[in-house]
Design a protein that fits this description.
Number of strands: 18
Distance between the termini: 38 Å
Radius of gyration: 23 Å
Largest sheet: 10 strands, mixed
Oligomer: single chain
Strand content: 15-25%
Mean pLDDT: 92
Shape: globular
CATH superfamily of the domain at 5-50 and 174-251 and 367-409: FAD/NAD(P)-binding domain
CATH architecture of the domain at 5-50 and 174-251 and 367-409: 3-Layer(bba) Sandwich
Low-confidence stretches: 277-287, 355-364
CATH class of the domain at 5-50 and 174-251 and 367-409: Alpha Beta
Length: 556
């Protein structure tokens, strides 16, 4: 998979998608599988913005019970199960513990009832799941003593016990997002990162595509399409503004959410602790919303904050104050954590759609996806805008968008097949058997830890990386300072995964930077490889290292 800007400029497409987050990529995958000629442009890297801000949880929508939103809960349950089937290498079940207090809305009686309802509503959650390790168990109820044994350090005052429910967790959310890109490209979609839409093309009252700029060279070209889908997330109204002018005003209002990487607090189970946030929209409010402390590959991931962000989404960044304030909140919610700023090597986050009517009440995150047909509201044909709100349901949102696309194109729609089509690398069968076979076939010069990592990161496609490691001298060696990542992964990202910048390799194609800043030696080695492969000069190499290091430096 590589950019082909000439083809984008020379051909006319059925569907142009502006935005390469998980929603846009899932839509491109579905549309290409159903036979549409698809182009997608992303002004940064695929999944590099909001999609990279996930806490790596595949939610089944338990919280929708508070809103009595059973339809959306069913959607989430189905899509959680789908991801566990379609990408078994990148997703697995994760138990969550919710401590119960007193005998009111946070008490055992209410939470036990919620677990019963959840089990009933999700009674078919394991349908079609043939891997016993990817099957989701029902809810459990724990005594006070058992709860404290699982989650020592939580407040014991008023504690009556706890409940356990099971959701999914992503091994590597960036690779999961990129799997949608790989799958879309394999189905025939033309995808290009670092290409920005700078003007929507019009023929009378119809949009006919977009004028785009290659952000690497500055060259501009036109992408022609019968239908254009604006799927740019926090940039959606800015892209819509390209109808009238090339530099629309930045007047978006969004919710800013961050997560932190911290020392492992709990190793077997994710734990919910109450935050100070209250959801005013909940029909059955339990009071505060929870922070989740989730064990992830030897660390804890903790999230998510939710604050109003006003300004240009291009200016979004996480500051050191954001992290310090979050650490303070966590210590207030879980004093036993005794977390310090120095213990947080990395933070990540992004912007999410806001519910305008609730800006002043604190309930800032929109819960429902929206598809706007601008032929109805703006009297402009050939253009739809799509607002997605949840990573877990990206596949389903893509299905809805493609259904609309076929309607707008006046074509009969083939059946959607993404619910049963594995994502790239996902044809592993029973995971334990696949991992066992992979380890048994390990080359002599690659250790077991790296083989497990390759299997989890690439699934059945790990053989492609191993083949490159066998062909290329030195490619089987670990990247300097890395525990699992080998040189072949860097080369594979450059040659087959459209990595254009050092940051792409460090944060989204490999695991080098997912838990904190890589060593100077690792960055230098990767930059040397990229300079050789992509023809960088010394100035570009130095700039790439500096820009990547800046992603791990948080200033006020």
């Amino acid at each position: 998979m590589q950019r082909d800007l000439k083809r984008l400029a020379d051909e006319t497409f059925d569907l142009l998608i502006i935005g390469g987050g998980v929603n846009g990529l899932a839509t491109a995958w579905d549309a290409a599988l159903r036979g549409l000629k698809v182009a997608l442009v992303e002004k940064a890297d695929f999944g590099g913005q909001t999609s990279s801000a996930t806490l790596k949880i595949i939610h089944g929508g338990l919280r929708y019970l508070q809103h009595l939103d059973f339809r959306r809960m069913r959607e989430s349950i189905r899509e959680r199960s789908a991801l566990l089937r379609l990408a078994p290498h990148l997703s697995s079940p994760m138990p969550f513990l919710v401590p119960t207090y007193g005998h009111l809305m946070q008490g055992m009686e209410v939470m036990a009832s919620a677990m019963i309802m959840n089990d009933l509503i999700s009674c078919d959650r394991n349908r079609g799941q043939h891997d016993p390790d990817r099957r989701l168990p029902g809810g459990q109820y724990l005594s006070k003593r058992a709860t404290l044994e699982l989650a020592p350090g939580i407040s014991a005052k008023g504690l009556t016990g706890g409940v356990i429910f099971c959701d999914g967790q992503m091994y590597n959310s960036e690779r999961l997002t990129f799997s949608f890109a790989l799958s879309a490209a394999a189905a025939g979609a033309q995808l290009a990162n670092y290409v920005a839409a700078v003007r929507l093309l019009r023929a009378g009252d119809r949009v006919t595509g977009a004028r785009c700029r290659d952000l690497e060279t500055g060259a501009e070209f036109e992408v022609r399409a019968t239908l254009t889908a604006n799927m740019s997330g926090p940039w959606s109204d800015i892209v819509l503004g390209l109808l009238e002018r090339p530099d629309p005003p930045r007047q978006v209002v969004r919710s800013k959410g961050i997560q932190i990487v911290a020392p492992q607090l709990y190793d077997k189970i994710a734990v919910a602790v109450p935050s100070a946030y209250v959801d005013p929209d909940a029909v059955l409010s339990r009071g505060t919303r929870n922070f989740f402390i989730t064990p992830w590959r030897g660390t804890s991931l903790i999230g998510t904050t939710d604050t109003v962000y006003k300004g240009d989404p291009d200016d979004f960044r996480i500051t050191d104050r954001d992290i310090r304030d979050f650490v303070t909140e966590i210590n207030q919610s879980l004093p036993s954590a005794k977390l310090t700023r120095a213990q947080v090597p990395f933070a990540f986050g992004g912007l999410r759609p806001i519910t305008e009517k609730n800006i002043d009440t604190g309930s800032t995150v929109a819960r429902k996806y929206e598809i706007y047909d601008h032929e109805k509201d703006l009297k402009i044909g050939g253009l739809v805008s799509v607002i997605g709100v949840k990573y877990t349901t990206a596949r389903f949102l893509g299905e809805q968008v493609v259904d609309v696309a076929f309607q707008k194109l006046g074509k009969a729609s083939p059946r959607c097949v993404t619910l049963e089509t594995p994502l790239a690398g996902g044809q592993t069968g029973v995971w334990a058997d696949f991992e066992r076979r992979t380890l048994a076939a390990a080359p002599a010069n690659i250790g077991a830890a790296t083989m497990r990592h390759l299997a989890r990161s690439y699934g059945t496609d790990c053989q492609l990386v191993l083949d490159l490691a066998a062909r290329e001298p030195g490619a089987a060696a670990l990247v300097p300072g890395a525990d699992e990542v080998i040189v072949a992964e860097i080369l594979y990202a450059l040659r087959h995964e459209s990595a254009r910048k050092l940051e792409d390799v460090v944060l989204r194609r490999t695991d080098l930077g997912t838990k904190g800043q890589p060593s100077a030696a690792a960055l230098a080695a990767c930059a040397d490889l990229m300079a050789r492969e992509l023809g960088w000069d010394a100035a570009r190499r130095a700039r790439e290292i500096a820009e990547t290091e800046a992603r791990f430096q948080f200033v006020d």
